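FIELD: query
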Amino acid sequence: MRRKKEPEMAVDFAEATVEAVFGDLYSLVKDTARTVAAFRPQLKKIESTLSEMDPIIKKIYHLYEQLDRLKEMDPIKELLDEGKGLVQKCLSIHWFHLHKKYTLSSDLTEYNKAVQEKFQIYMSLLAARNDAEMLMNMEEIRSLCSSQANRGAIQSGLGAFGNLAVPAAPAFMVGSEMEKSMREIKLRLLKEGARVIVVTAPGGCGKTTLIKKLCHDREIKGKFNIIMFVTVSKKPNLTDIVQKMYQHNHLEAPEIKTEDGAFSCLEQLLHKIGQDPVLLVLDDVWAEWESILKKFVCNDIKDYKIVVTSRYEFPYFRPVHHLKPLTHDEAVELFRQCVTVDDRSVAAPDSQLLNKMVEHCKRLPLVIKVIANSLRGKDYAFWRGKLNELNEGHSLIDSDKEIEACLRKSLDDMASDPSIKERFMDLGSFPEDCKIPATALIDMWVELYKLDPDGVRAITNLHELVSRNLADLVVTRKDSSDDHESYSSHYYSGHFAQQHDLLRELAIKECKKVEMEKRERFILELNGNKLPDWWSEQKQRPLGARLLSISTDKTFSAPWPNLELPQAEVLVLNFQNDMQSKTYALPEFIEKADKLKALIVTNHSFFPAELHNFHVVGGNLRRIRFQRIAVPFLSIGKLCLHNLKKISFFMCHISQTSTSNDAKISDGMPNLVELDIDYCDNLTTLPDGICEIKPLKKLSITNCHNFSALPEQIGQLVSLEVIRLNSCTALSQLPDSIRSLQNMKLLDISDCMKLSALPNQIGEMVNLNRINMRGCLKLFGLPRSIIKLRNLRKVICEKEKADLWGLLKGTLPKLNITLFEEEPNLDWLE
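FIELD: result
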């Protein structure tokens, strides 16, 4: 099969300018790479090299043209001419000429190396361009010297000339997400609209790599005549940045004495250069720079856009582009690319070894590159040794300074807000790869940091961590669309925080900087029955930790040694059970922890586990949270939890079998304010003794699909303000005594599919101001007493029920009817 005829060149190479020669060679290489498969790998590498040269060639050509020094570019032109001859040969060699194909392949490879090595593209061309800029500025200085009045200004402009050129494009990018991100950001830059685009992700995810590649895109360079790339980092010098922006645009750098003066000069510069489209990249911007960032915006310049890369989300600016992590396959491909040596694909000795190595890198591009580079050219034994180190728990953070330095920037960025750093370190109290319930964090932080009991401040702290890319927020469901407006943390019962494993390692490492006895938080992970040596010592000193976290694996069965915790306020216990053992013993040392206020016990196994030593739970506790625990509900009356304000059960097996010795549940926790029961499928009713807890204000029984009835005595809970019965699909009616709840503000009966009617005398609940009744499929009518609910402000329901409520608008003038349509979400199954 014959090759395509050589395309006609747009210009004669002998007479053409170097810019035209370069452009035609670039086009010829790309066209030939598409049509001639035999030489495609070599041509693609030449195309990549030419792509990196493109902006430099153009810059030098235009400057040398103004200086009348184009002759000095003849060596570059000759090199390009040589390339044209080689590429044209690709079109004339038949597929069966194997020797000629081999020879030309070698010639193309050598040509690519010659371009890179002989002329030192990354050094000599850049230096030539800077020399040209220097000559141009010196010509300007000579012309200014004729005016005596300008000499003072000349002296201020004789410093180092600013260089805000875009760094070289990365050799390659891997991942459909990277490509998708580049397309989306590029589209926003090319069309009218957003002035500022924030690209955010945790450190080491490839934000800067992405933007470097974007700035070298032909369409972006075609639109923006001026592109300035500023690396901001931790403590930027604003005056220096503005002066460099002047110098980059071949303008005299002004003398700037104050920050306000810098912004004034910046505005003048933008108006001076703003006739051409301008793209300003601010790379690695820290959170504390938000107020300064706002002043870089200039709305009266049409084609002026800013791209910001940061670990912080900057809520003031929109749109925000969240760069997603690599998939496993993409991480493997990136690892292969980085481990390649001398154009030969030298990956792991076998694919299984490669996959295990990639898993340890946690899909973080920076870590992948660092580990892959350390393995380049190494033999099997070296690979196996590295993998054994990682399997034994050696920290990636400790293995390389570049990884630690990159991640540690996130800690440094929190220097101005120590409280957020504390919350970040607290996330390490939960196991690796764990979805951390937001409600558990609320319980922890409310007691540890003396926050408001409803947890509003705690949720604000969590969102701050998310905005800094120090955690992800996974929302699996929203039980009630109005709970975020009021009535506290239950709105977040379907919210979970996740922390990247390497960030968790960093948090734990930061904790360990302090002597063991003086640590504010103590995080202990036990594998098997091997306890730390310090724990078994006879003369062990007390720990000063206010937060203690202990995680055990399936093989742990050792008895708990003694532990003194005189300062502990929060205890987090994470454990797993194997299929044979479904019991877990609470540590005896809990009984002596006199200051303990919050206990969070989480079973990370699939089936609920029975708790032994339940009696050790102390009387000073204010909050308890159980997850996947078999709880003898009625036996709680035997405990002395007189300070307990809140108790939560999530996916628990709540036993209601009573014995003659069982004390009233109201005796065990007489001052309980909040009771949360979620996804406890075996719960059918509540013990009547619950109705004797007079301080109880919030009762939440949600997603309990066998729960069929509230106690008839519910009306005795005169302090009750909130009842949530969301997704109790077996509930068919509400007791009439509910009418007595004069302090009730919120009634959530959403998705109670069998509920067919509201209580006839619901109108006596005079302070009720919100009802959520979405998904009540059998509820079609409203009782006549509903017109007495003068304080009712909001009802959430579907359209057909909204028509019923609409008839009451004249009687209930404060009423707002909200239609609700919820998309199905099964993320909670994870």
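FIELD: remark
The mean pLDDT is 78.
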